[in-house]
Amino acid sequence: MGHRTALYQSHIDAGGKMVDFGGWDMPINYGSQIEEHHQVRRHAGLFDVSHMTVVDVTGADARQYLRRLLANDVARLDDKPGKALYSAMLNEAGGVIDDLIVYHLQGWYRVIVNCATRDKDLAWMSQQASGLDVHINERTELSMMAVQGPKALEIVKQCVSAGRAELIDQLSVFTGKDEGGWFFARTGYTGEDGLEILLPEADAPSVWQALIDAGVVPCGLGARDTLRLEAGMNLYGHEMDDATSPLAANMGWTIAWEPTERDFIGRGALEAQRREGASDTLVGLVLTGRGVLRAGQSVRVPGSERTGVITSGTFSPTLGYSIAMARVPAGASGEASVDVRGKALAVSIVKPNFVRHGQALV
Amino acid sequence: MSDIRNELKYLPSHEWARVEEDGTVTIGITDHAQESLGDVVYVETPELGATVNAGEEAGVVESVKAASDIYSPISGEVIAVNESLEDAPEQVNESPYDDGWFYKVKPSDLSELEDALDAAGYQAAIEADE
């Protein structure tokens, strides 16, 4: 038996098909993954993401500490309480230890990292805090749910107190706010508008049920994966890992090179890579014919002897054909071919961004 | 609890075979298989007129989650394929033993099915997997 979230029984009651996910018993779907996916694009879906790791960083040196720990610069959040930032946390060689979201709250920071990387992340974060006035406090007592889709905000507001509904009205995109032990953030992992909500475990099942009663559809980790892939969002362990540079994972935009004197961990290695020019790049692939692209399949691109590899692939429920993200030799464009069980299937190389706000981008 | 039908023969790899009144054999995948695969998005059946061999690959079924080979429970000539799966692969999920059939064979040796599992044997095979 794996770890169970406070919503485990809610999943069983809703007919969730439970699977092991990074040591947690989580729902992969509640019937049809494709139907859940469509609900998020067209209406609103509800995800239990309590397996994610929430870490509060406090202390007089918190800002200085995060400016060294992260490739993006939390100084961009100064004077913007509530604002969030997406960042890589790099090792000295410039590999990605994890990707995360950091929120700037009143004088402290809330960091949300992945579940499968929890142990190494916490060990690394503690090690880097040595000698600083920094406190790292994991919030295991909180549940986390994501409500995503064009109707998400409207429905959540109906299910919470008037004060919290007002707070949601004031939340601009990519900001978060804490309130009475709860935390609302207008963030997500689907390419749709929506909220991520942290709340005490004891409150989670009744809120979950209220949202379902208000018409939000429970969605499993299967739909979460097809949604994020359509939205061109990376998944740790697929698009990047300890041995992958963020420059080869379409994460160049998350690296704050300025100010040049900010010495974040991994900076030296990344600057060397930037001088030499990246050897690999992350692209999107589209297969309009029959078949489904899968992680691990090899990609042949024009003008290169070296092959690339699919990092994530799936059938796209919104588009009705298969899409993938692939790491290929830099500069590749146009048509490519993928080895699908011995057959070379023709695919088009596109930007790794397929669907946003319900609209096809390819 | 998945649906296992008494009148069918099964492979441990989750294909079913039904001997029709005219002596032909219809092949598909089981309710348990469709449930483990999740939403089916493509089915690659053998070609009409092709010869399939018992225990060998005869096609592929792809779900959102994974690709899975289809093994033929019996040898023979393929005399029909379920073309409606091209536009409506979800029939495999909704009706695995009826509308979601894959292909039909004129068997070269019907006794090959004696080696296949009956309903109780297949039930036991699923339970051993879990």
Automatic annotation (TrEMBL), chain A:
Catalytic activity from the UniProt record: N(6)-[(R)-S(8)-aminomethyldihydrolipoyl]-L-lysyl-[protein] + (6S)-5,6,7,8-tetrahydrofolate = N(6)-[(R)-dihydrolipoyl]-L-lysyl-[protein] + (6R)-5,10-methylene-5,6,7,8-tetrahydrofolate + NH4(+)
Key word Transferase present: yes
One of the Pfam families matching this protein, by short name: GCV_T_C
The keyword Transferase belongs to this UniProt entry's keyword annotation: yes
GCVT N-terminal domain span: 7-258
Alphabetized SUPFAM superfamilies for the sequence: Aminomethyltransferase beta-barrel domain (SSF101790), Folate-binding domain (SSF103025)
EC number per UniProt: 2.1.2.10
GO MF terms, alphabetically ordered: aminomethyltransferase activity
Keywords: Aminotransferase, Transferase
Residue ranges of every copy of the Aminomethyltransferase C-terminal domain listed in the record: 282-355
Taxonomic superkingdom: Bacteria
Oligomeric and partner information: The glycine cleavage system is composed of four proteins: P, T, L and H.
Entry similarity comment: Belongs to the GcvT family.
Stated role: The glycine cleavage system catalyzes the degradation of glycine.
Protein name, as recorded: Aminomethyltransferase
Protein's organism: Gilvimarinus algae
From TrEMBL, chain B:
Top-rank lineage group of the source organism: Bacteria
Keywords on record: Lipoyl
SUPFAM superfamilies, alphabetized: Single hybrid motif
Lipoyl-binding domain boundaries: 24-106
Co-factor note (free text): Binds 1 lipoyl cofactor covalently.
A Pfam family per the record: GCV_H
Residues with the N6-lipoyllysine modification: K65
Keyword Cell inner membrane in annotation: no
Cofactor: (R)-lipoate
Keyword Zinc: no
HAMAP family linked to this entry: GcvH
Described purpose of this protein according to its UniProt entry: The glycine cleavage system catalyzes the degradation of glycine. The H protein shuttles the methylamine group of glycine from the P protein to the T protein.
Record note on quaternary structure: The glycine cleavage system is composed of four proteins: P, T, L and H.
Similarity remark: Belongs to the GcvH family.
Protein name: Glycine cleavage system H protein
Gene transcribed to yield this protein: gcvH
